[in-house]
Amino acid sequence: xxxxxxxxxxxxxxPRDDLxxxxxxxxxxxxxxxxxxxVAVIIKFIIS
Length: 48
What we know:
about 50 residues, about 60% helix, rod-shaped, transmembrane, transmembrane helix, membrane
């Protein structure tokens, strides 16, 4: 039983900054929605 490792060590986890990942996700989603909004406004001005 000496080769048993503590499962709390999480050897497979990569050291990442979760807050930074969430911030990048929010920023990317905001940029996508802004592009969709801008295209919709341009199409509305072309139609009218």
